[in-house]
User: Fold ECF transporter S component from Vagococcus lutrae.
Amino acid sequence: MNNTNRWKTSEVVLMGLFAALTVVGTSIRVPLPALVGNPFFHFGLPILSLAVLTLGFFKGSLAGGIGFAIFDVLNGFAVEAPYFILESFVVGAVLSYAFLRLKRYEQKAWFIPLVMFIAALAKIMMTFLKNFVIQLALGSSASIAAVASFSTLYITVINALAAIIIVTLLYRPVSHLTKKMLYK
Assistant:
């Protein structure tokens, strides 16, 4: 039986590499003060984004999600691991959709920053919704939950802006290297 949907070994290797880089990138963190949780600046989002842009939606999101889950389990955030897998797929879907819709402008200098800006908005919305639901579950009123959740968004905005800059700088070389590896 010939299965044409098999993943190539090089794709699996790259998925493992991006998962490992996500763990390492998220481990390089700078704690930041906030009213909700214990947020920190890290390099996970740029690595997830590069994985999605080079491996495609499913494989890139899976690699990033696995990397975030491993990080969470190893660092005492195991209860949040399923959420970050889901978030990887949501952000990956938005990123892939924006990339495909705007692909005709791929050679323009603003292409990757715009695609990343759209993905960053998805990340910010997911973070707000997660924190809002957590605050509601803790018994806060909707208005207090919204204010508390909004107050932590500056951290996500910092991470998102860093991701836009990092991915803009690294997309072309990383894409070139992965295409070379995948399609030799």
